[in-house]
Structure of WYL domain-containing protein:
Amino acid sequence: MKVDRLVSIIMILLEKKRVSAQKLADTFEVSPRTIYRDIDTISMAGIPIRSTSGVGGGFEIMPDYKVDKKVFSADDLSALLMGLSNLYNIVRGDELIHALAKVKSFIPADRAKDIELKVNQICIDLSPWVSNRNTQSYLEIIKTALQENRAISFSYIDRHGNKTTRTVEPYQLVLKSNHWYFQGYCYSRNDYRLFRLSRMTDLQMKKDTFVPRAYQKPILDIAEIVETLQIEIKIRIHKSIMDRVLDFCAYEHFTPDDDEYYIVDFPFIDRDYYYDILLSFGDKCECLEPLHIREKIKYKVHNIVALYDN
């Protein structure tokens, strides 16, 4: 991974006085031309690197520029470790292990215990209790394809159950609302598409590489769209499902209705997804108004009953 290689080059140059381009190329198993590009990137980031030619020449960080372990405070190190540790819980990879090891090397021995306590104050684990077993292995394949600019092929099942075969150039992994997606350029659609990993099967990485094209990031913030579609409905719920309803609206929207029930102003969009949420509450939830939403729920419940009667 390029970022990991850049950090490693900086660490080597901080430890040694001068290192040749060929030595760095051999260390990271890349071409000297790649090393020269990496050095330019590091220089543009503000770290002054001097190049000398001839016998004994190479790259070195200018003597007047000094970075030592004191550049990071205990809070800085805690924040870095907290972020890297929780990211590793979500996306595993050798590059994260290496980055964690490098950051830990900056921790003074007398502050190690205090920093460890701070790091452990927050734990982020977005993995569901029960999940699609393919997701983690597919993440690894897509990560490799992203790093190596290799297209991937897979079968895709849309929300209506239609199955198609796709070949896609991957450009970005996205974690949104506890679900993994990736954004890529789809050859069959000649456009960018956002694919949900749980709807993919038979994922394979192509051998040939592609030249990255101008990338269009997916639109993930749909707050304005939701605001135009969303209404509030009144539901009556039993207290036993309060914790589940609180996932969708704040406690300020709850009004007690005797000792066992609450009336809730519930955010709702007239789409199947939201009806499925209400139906998932079972007989602990009743839609009171508006009438057309209540009638549509009755219709769906009637169809479920008819299914089981048959």
